Amino acid sequence: MTDSTAPRAPSVGEIAKRLKSPWTASALALITVAVLHPTRLATIGTDAARAFAGTLPFILVAVALVAYLKASGAETLIGRAFEGREASAIVLAALFGGLAPFCSCEVIPFVAGLIALGAPIAAIMAFWLASPLIDPGSLLITAAALDWPFAIGKATAAVGLGLFGGFATMALSRAGLLANVAKQRPKQGCGCGANPATGRPHWRIWTEAARRQAFRHEGWENLVFLTKWLVLAYILEALLITYMPAEMIASVVGGTGAGPIALSALVGMPAYLNSYVAPALLAGLMEQGMSSGAAMSFMVAGAVSSIPAMAAVWALVKPRVFALYLGLGVLGAILAGLVFQAVV
């Protein structure tokens, strides 16, 4: 007779999920160095730890800020960006998309509600394109890993990409090419969605136990999320600087022409790096010879094509709108790189 109380062995799927964790990837990277090149292990570990320590104050500020915004219910303000005239809605959606403290999974139920309320697809596209690029947390992470001019340029690129995509989508919609674009609304979100219904934020979160609990929960979740991804990012950055020849990087994405910028967008699109991992890796690439315009193009394209960002779009609209999202993303990434290169 079998013992039904015996602990259940993990399934193959559960084991695979654990192995795909950033913690596992970080450990495997260091173990590989220790086995194949042990004399480099201390240098790589020290470089990664020093970079993470330098970013830690920014992480803590970002965690506290996002937790406060979520606990206060400030995301209810975002829904107001989609009210009123279509052109005005696009502008406000692009601005709010770059400021909203949403993770990508939260965009799914949020936008599903907006679609159900009849919000214009052009404004939603503006929000979709701007949202993966920047938020209060990733702005601070980018400034720490690169510098404030690059972080401000990235924020500007986010708003610019939202405006570009929103007005392009409005033109296509008015030409009759984007009718009936929504899929059937999902029955469930990811469990952490924002409600676009009207309402006022409650800024004094310390007066309610539920909001204090939400602040602690959101803060811890974001701290763990940022830590695990940034540890991996800085280990990869140290590996990149140690083993990637500077001459090769400079020959492919160096220089100031349009070619390296376009190539970086095309490479960044399938790389689908989120806005927390990309800054550290790009810092290493720029140290090896990557141009600033190519770095901006790579970052914009990678954020737009990150798996969570694409999932948020694919879950809600039909394939032609998803293809439009990717096309606008890569074209906007190239334009952002060209403009940033010219300005810098």
Précis, in short:
With 344 residues, this protein is mainly α.
Describe the structure using short key phrases.
single chain, 344 residues, mainly alpha, 71% helix, cell membrane, Permease, putative
SSE class = mainly alpha
Radius of gyration: 21 Å
Strand content: under 5%
> Regarding quaternary structure, how should these chains be classified?
single chain
**Uncertain segments of ≥5 residues (pLDDT<50)?**
185-198
Say how many strands there are.
Answer: 0
Helical amount: over 70%
Terminal CA distance reads 73 Å
Summarize the biggest pleated sheet.
none
Compute the number of helices: 15
Give the SSE string. Answer: HHHHHHHHHHHHHHH
Principal-axes shape call: globular
Count of the domains: 1
Mean pLDDT score, rounded?
A: 76
Q: Explain this structure to me?
A:
This protein has 344 residues and is mainly α. Helices cover 71% and strands 0% of the residues. The protein has one domain (27-177, 207-343). It has helices spanning 12-19, 22-36, 38-72, 86-97, 104-116, 121-130, 136-145, 148-174, 209-243, 246-253, 258-271, 278-287, 292-304, 307-314, 319-343. It is found in: Cell membrane. This is Permease, putative. It is a multi-pass membrane protein. Its main location: membrane.
